[in-house]
Amino acid sequence: MRAVGVRVLGGPDALEVLDLPEPHAGPGELRIRVQAAAVNPTDTLQRSTRRQDVDPPWVPGMDIAGVVDEVGAESSAGGTSSDTGAGDLLAVGDPAMAIVVPAGTHGAYAEYVVVPKGSAVALPDGADAIAAATLPMNGLTARLALDELAVPAGGTLAVTGAAGAFGGYVVQLAVAAGIRVVADASDADRDLVRALGADVVLERGDGFPAAVREVVPDGVDGLADGSVQGDALLPAVRDGGRIATVRGYRGPSGDETAERGITWHPVWVRTIAEHRDKLDELRALASSGAVTLRVAGTYPAERAPDAHRALEAGGQRGRAVLTF
After folding, report:
1. Pair 47, 95: CB distance under 8 Å
2. Whole-prediction pTM value?
3. C-alpha dihedral, 37 to 39 to 41 to 47, nearest 10°
4. Phi and psi dihedrals of 70, rounded to 5?
5. What does the alpha-carbon distance between residue 95 and residue 128 come to, in Å, rounded to a whole number?
6. What is the mean pLDDT of residues 70-98?
7. DSSP 3-state of 305
8. 178: left (phi over 0), alpha (psi -120 to 50) or beta
9. Each residue's pLDDT tens digit, 241-275
10. DSSP H or E stretch at residue 302
């Protein structure tokens, strides 16, 4: 089968078209004939710096959408608890989207991808494969961040990087949960972030924490750090509040506890990659319009280097998608 990956870590041009054996669905798994795969910052890390325990080639990618074409037998355990209450299981011929946990040649940039049944659900109503491919990984990361922050309905959440894919989903999921959102944006993105539902939009950058305190004098209950500002955001958070981080940041001392009782909560989407109920909740929210799917552009799989260059240039709003 055709896939896109790297044999040697490097820049975008390290990506090449590969000819790999087709995978097949085993017990508790299904196979998707991929039509679309989103391009995320994690993919650029897998391409450039992330060495693995297996020999190359390595195929990046964590988001797919397409059509189920193989369904394996039920596992001996009869499935997982994460499948419970998540709607009907998928069958051959069903359109589907899924989160992929890449390892070696197993990644989203391929014509056929096998995933656990708990990692795939139907497409949102009215969405095609290209739009749906932008949701699973970023949406689940946003869902996990909110779960870790545990801001109650009526509480206040701050979001940095609110115009991006992760930040935008955090804003919309928080709004759907009845949480007040204070978000950052550049002048060019203010209208976008307001349209996502943020209650207050402040200028992005070094002055954001002080501006948050002007709006919320005691500090926010929680903060989702999509722009990776780290310690600089502490002044925005109330005593005993929480900060959710991406890329594993655990605070200045690494012990996950900061000044004034504030705690850091790194989010790793792999930990909920088989929580089908959470992915199905995202599907339902996208179907209702509470969550919007944003495509920054489409590229044939062979042009994956161009998609990576566009992402690394910055300023994308939504996700680029490779088509197969």
Report:
1. no
2. 0.93
3. 80
4. -150, 140
5. 9
6. 74
7. helix
8. left
9. 999 999 777 776 666 677 889 999 999 999 999 99
10. none
